[in-house]
Amino acid sequence: MRNPRGPRAASLTVTAALLTALTAGCGGTTGADAAGGGTTGGSLAAQKLTWKDCPAPSASEGSPTPSPPPNGGTWQCATMKAPLDWSRPDGDTIDIALIRAKATGPGRRIGSLIFNFGGPGGSGTDTLPLIAQDYAKLATRYDLVSFDPRGVGRSTAVKCESDAWLDRYFQQDSTPDDAAERTTLLNSTKQFNAACEKNSGRLLPHMRTTDAARDLDLMRQVLGDSKLHYFGISYGTELGGVYAHLFPRHVGRAVFDAVVDPTQSPEQVSLSQAKGFQTALDNFAKDCVSRGADQCPIGSSAQDVQNRIAALLEKLDGNPIPGIFPRRLTQSAATTGIAQALYSKDLWPALTEGLRQAYAGDGQILMLLSDALNGRDENGTYDNLVAANTAVNCADQRQRYTPADVERALPAFRAASPVFGDFLAWSILNCTGWPVPGAGDRTEVSAPGAAPILLIGNTGDPATPYQGMKRMAQALGKGVAVQLTWKGQGHGAYSSKDPCVQNAVNSYLLDGKPPADGTVCS
């Protein structure tokens, strides 16, 4: 969930800088081609990549200093050329930024393992260096590779509005209560979309997930791999499913973690997320009160925790409190901050402290969390995830909703979640007035003949609810999906470091042995 553009699945990771800031806050101070699989790319498939040591992250990327690769060497970066328009593979080109850490055991090297960590719009060149130690075992036999998809980060990027404008945008009321507030919301959406067209109109028609999947197959060829070995997380599972549909015979060993439901409309996705985030909030509240009053100073029972959160959000609707100067914590920012903390159980203590401080009139921690979800760093610089996220979603989905559609849907959203329902219902307007028509009503992922794809579903996942795994499995087709269930909390499973999950994934990627279909880890 991303405020207020409404993506299908947000990025998995929480930056080290955010965790440091929130840990401090928790201490009491007030201070994230052909369906058969033909070769693509034209003459670009023969290009040679020039790998060099990566530059330091720029201010516009809003990322901390990367950690060393698992092999103790250096991170290497390169730029791949891809067609702007895949219907003209030898026409104008765009840049795709890549990053890699070479395999630590080159004598046993399988190939490249390409990661997409989610979004759409998440930067792989930013994310992989922050969490690569989690994949140290996989690095023994794979070059760990990630990339900024088209429109993202260091690749040819979508540009929309300024940082100052986005600050105002994320402060506004995204759950309008009257005609004036609704007009303000619609006008800001219109202005954002117009800025995207003005600044990136050439790129917007070519931001579909099918375009990114073709880039992925070009990447496979340029890296010298006969098969695509792939680890997709969140939106990365949708990208992987589209790739498998387009190139089933090129699928190698693939893992989809935090699986997107490819069968749903944008409205259905948002409604599922409302249910998912509400379930995660319920689990947070139960966990908090189980720790006793000293560690849970935000409610005497799980229902009391929920009631106090609802009362806080209602109060903030008209009376925001100090956040990070000069900004104030509004209802929208607080809702976003609460949602961000539900992506990882590691952030539940930060959420507890953030709520405690907010009840006392200090909104700094909830605003830090909100900033992380919106891609804003401590210097006030936004990454381009919001712009790229909107561009991909609106290029993919044909539906263009109206305020009347939202009003019709509101009762179901409110029943799904008294905290997140209104917020996610209004988010379905994100593509209203978008300058480029969307590609279709559903995501096509059927992949008959593809190699087994390991799907991992987390029963407590708020952003990609568990049922998405089963629907992805059905949509891929008979004999393709191998399903693994993890009974956990947060977004995704492998990053939890649960040994059952990690052993299953590692066994498949390293040795080619998938777990039994229907395996459950708890």
Labels describing this entry:
alpha/beta; disordered N terminus; 522 residues; 10-stranded mixed sheet
In short:
The protein is α/β, with parallel strands linked by helices and 522 residues long. It has helices at residues 16-26, 124-131, 163-171, 179-200, 209-222, 235-246, 266-290, 302-318, 331-341, 348-359, 364-374, 385-396, 403-416, 421-426, 467-476, 499-511, and strands at residues 52-53, 76-83, 93-101, 111-116, 142-148, 228-233, 251-257, 321-322, 328-329, 453-458, 481-486, 519-521.
How would you explain this protein's 3D organization?
The relative contact order is 0.16. With 522 residues, this protein is an alpha/beta fold. The chain has helices spanning 16-26, 124-131, 163-171, 179-200, 209-222, 235-246, 266-290, 302-318, 331-341, 348-359, 364-374, 385-396, 403-416, 421-426, 467-476, 499-511, and strands at 52-53, 76-83, 93-101, 111-116, 142-148, 228-233, 251-257, 321-322, 328-329, 453-458, 481-486, 519-521. It has a ten-stranded mixed β-sheet with strand order 1-2-3-5-4-6-7-10-11-12, with helices on both faces. Strands 8-9 form a two-stranded antiparallel ribbon. It is globular, with a radius of gyration of 22 Å. Mean pLDDT is 91; it is low at 2-21 and 23-37. The protein starts with 15 loop residues before the first helix and ends with a strand. The longest helix has 25 residues, at 266-290. A hairpin with a 5-residue loop joins strand 8 (321-322) and strand 9 (328-329).
